[in-house]
Amino acid sequence: MADPASIAAISGTLELVNKSVDLVRNLRKKGDNELNAAEMRNTLIDLLDDLVEVKSEFVSLKAVLLTKEQEIQELKAKLDSKQEFIFDGRLYWRVGDGTPFCPVCIEKDTKSIHMDYFAGNTEYKPSWYCKVCRNEFDA
């Protein structure tokens, strides 16, 4: 769904185009014989002003469309990278990679952070540790 600002900008641009078309139709209807030079000049100035505004609106709309396209590409990239992972109930793994990724970093910040393995000793169990968010998960 388009955002309200984009819809308003498109509506405004269409109104300007319709107004410009009406000015040209009126010029054609009246013809050269009915209009004096001053009326013709004023009508053409109005038309030029409207067309300059239409051009400006289209430049703005193009910028909005480029921004939206960039957002779409970023979201697609995030979705694709999320689909590359396999979640085993505790950790995220990537096929062919023996080191898991931190589930907190992936789910909270959408960052793919490899975890460090801690073999443990008599006091501690083996675990995976994230250097970024400092969460620890049993191996």
Structural summary, described in words:
The protein is mainly α and 139 residues long. The chain has two domains: 4-81; 85-138, no CATH class. The protein has three helices and five strands, in the order H-H-E-E-H-E-E-E. The strands form two sheets. It has a three-stranded antiparallel sheet, with no helix packed on it. The chain has a two-stranded antiparallel ribbon with strand order 1-2. Helix 1 packs antiparallel against helix 2 (37-83). The two termini are 44 Å apart.
Quickly describe the structure.
The protein is mainly alpha-helical. The protein is built from three helices and five strands, in the order ααββαβββ.
* Arrangement of strands in the largest sheet: 3-4-5
The counted number of beta strands is: 5
Radius of gyration: 31 Å
What fraction of residues sit in β-strands? 5-15%
Order of helices and strands: HHEEHEEE
Q: How many helices?
A: 3
Distance between the termini: 44 Å
Overall pLDDT metric:
83
Shape: rod-shaped
Q: How many structural domains can be distinguished in the coordinates?
A: 2
The major beta sheet can be summarized as: 3 strands, antiparallel
Tell me which oligomeric state these chains represent: single chain
Structural class: mainly alpha
The poorly predicted ranges are none
What is the helix content? 55-70%
Give me the secondary-structure topology.
Blueprint: H1 4-34, H2 37-83, E1 85-87, E2 92-94, H3 103-109, E3 116-118, E4 127-129, E5 136-138
Antiparallel strand pairs: 1-2, 3-4, 4-5
Helix pairs in contact: 1-2
